[in-house]
Recover the amino acids of this structure.
């Protein structure tokens, strides 16, 4: 099983939170007076905001206009990060190699690959 | 307005290119029951809805469908990487390739381009919500059909997520339909069109259905 990078794991957490938020929003649209759902939304949003800020500080912006303070989020070493970091559909060459690599438990002859 | 977030709603990571699968999955981008049609339908219908709950559901489901357009497009992009002419021909992908290379073009699997003829906006909440219920079921069937035809586990994972969302959207539109019916006179839901005949209490409108 391919090891997920820290970045990938952090992004997964954001995707999970965003998904829970989306479901809560759709519920609230149909049930606008459900205060338990309001509270659940606020709890999720707090974690989502916090984890998004941390992800963006480390890996670059997820939106092009953030209304909250974002020192160091948008440019690094003079480079505009929004367009210059990978786009969500792109798979890097390194990722393809990792995904295609044989798993460590398979018993097979390796070429120059060496150990995993 | 619309804001774009630079992340997929659900991860898509395809290890092996598969242009045959791509030639089928393209229908969920630009086909009659695909995600582009769904988002256009809901985002258009919301303007003539008189009830806030329904406008909310249409806006938020319509926006989610745009994120599904992105997931399908990502599947197509990753499934058509590094293809040789032999792979393109063997997969039956050559007819799409000749017009679009490996670009992302909204069309049905059999080749018809996307059209607004695939969607309905009747300007009547009951008609529009019933269309939406049917649309979600048709999308679910299309995903079922893709699952019958595609074995690649990376692809199946993303498709199963999208299929599950169709079922949830169907339930949300059921909520919207109930909310609409609650606003109307149960003795006659069709006494007037609440998307058009809004000022009934103040003005008597002519030419209303009896």
């Amino acid at each position: 099983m391919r090891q997920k990078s820290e970045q990938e794991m952090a992004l997964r957490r954001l995707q999970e939170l965003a998904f829970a938020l989306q479901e809560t929003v759709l519920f609230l649209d149909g049930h606008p007076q459900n205060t338990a759902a309001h509270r659940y939304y606020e709890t999720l949003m707090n974690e989502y905001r916090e984890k998004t800020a941390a992800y963006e500080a480390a890996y670059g912006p997820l939106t092009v206009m953030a209304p909250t303070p974002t020192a160091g989020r948008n440019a690094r070493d003079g480079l505009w990060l929004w367009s210059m970091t990978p786009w969500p559909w792109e798979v890097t060459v390194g990722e393809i190699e990792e995904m295609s690599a044989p798993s460590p438990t398979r018993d097979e002859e390796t070429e120059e690959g060496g150990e995993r | 307005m619309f804001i774009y977030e630079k992340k997929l709603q659900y991860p898509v990571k395809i290890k092996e290119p598969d242009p045959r699968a791509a030639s089928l999955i393209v229908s969920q981008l630009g086909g009659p029951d695909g995600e582009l049609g769904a988002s256009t339908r809901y985002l258009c219908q919301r303007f003539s809805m008189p009830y806030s709950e329904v406008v909310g559901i249409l806006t938020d489901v319509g926006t989610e469908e745009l994120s599904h357009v992105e997931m399908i497009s990502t599947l197509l992009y990753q499934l058509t990487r590094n293809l040789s002419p032999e792979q393109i021909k063997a997969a039956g992908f050559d007819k799409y390739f000749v017009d679009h290379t490996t670009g992302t073009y909204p069309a049905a699997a059999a080749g018809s381009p996307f059209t607004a003829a695939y969607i309905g906006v009747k300007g009547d909440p009951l008609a529009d919500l019933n269309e939406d219920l049917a649309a979600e079921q048709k999308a679910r069937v299309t995903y079922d059909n893709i699952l019958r035809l595609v074995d690649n586990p990376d692809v199946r994972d993303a498709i199963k997520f999208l299929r599950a969302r169709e079922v949830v959207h169907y339930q949300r539109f059921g909520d919207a339909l109930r909310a609409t019916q609650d606003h109307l006179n149960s003795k006659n839901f069709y006494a007037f069109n609440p998307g058009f005949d809004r000022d009934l209490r103040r003005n008597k409108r002519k030419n209303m259905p009896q």
